[in-house]
Amino acid sequence: MWKSLFAAQCNYQGDHLDSEAAPISRSAQQQHPPPLSPDTPSLFVDAALDQKNGVIGTGFIFKLGFQTVLASHCHHLPGAVSPIFAEGQALLQSLKWCIDSQLSPKFVFSDCLNLVSKVNSAWQDNSALSGLVSQIRLLFSNFPDASLQYLPRQFNMDAHVLAKEALRPREDS
């Protein structure tokens, strides 16, 4: 079944736009990735932000463990508001993509510690971000066995590269 899955993969050409969600203390950063069995279905998510052009690039990769890529997707979205909102949009879009693609992750990884903390807690207020977090939680209900976990950027580079690639201008053929 896994071999029959296919998703468009972006080719990274190397742009230099940056997306940082929030500074993370050295104590919160990990030097090693969390333990993950090679056959564990996992979703890796990231966003890149281009505030100058008002766009977000999202990248998500569905893997078995850390190595085996089963499917990937990158997407260009209008409306670059803030880094955490961009990361939230990426997470929301990745969960919709998993539902549409009939993929069921056991773990969902994001390198935005602030967002992971908000989604995993009972946090809410009257902000647009709170509404986005509520939408993410609702989509997570489609994956009752899945958990959202923080993963430092250094271990989430494949999704980061896809997110940056989504920001690249497309030539019409």
TrEMBL record:
<dbReference type="InterPro" id="IPR052929">
    <property type="entry name" value="RNase_H-like_EbsB-rel"/>
</dbReference>
<dbReference type="Pfam" id="PF13456">
    <property type="entry name" value="RVT_3"/>
</dbReference>
<protein>
    <recommendedName>
        <fullName>RNase H type-1 domain-containing protein</fullName>
    </recommendedName>
</protein>
<dbReference type="GO" id="GO:0004523">
    <property type="term" value="F:RNA-DNA hybrid ribonuclease activity"/>
</dbReference>
<dbReference type="InterPro" id="IPR044730">
    <property type="entry name" value="RNase_H-like_dom_plant"/>
</dbReference>
<dbReference type="InterPro" id="IPR036397">
    <property type="entry name" value="RNaseH_sf"/>
</dbReference>
<dbReference type="InterPro" id="IPR002156">
    <property type="entry name" value="RNaseH_domain"/>
</dbReference>
<feature type="domain" description="RNase H type-1">
    <location>
        <begin position="45"/>
        <end position="166"/>
    </location>
</feature>
<dbReference type="InterPro" id="IPR012337">
    <property type="entry name" value="RNaseH-like_sf"/>
</dbReference>
<dbReference type="GO" id="GO:0003676">
    <property type="term" value="F:nucleic acid binding"/>
</dbReference>
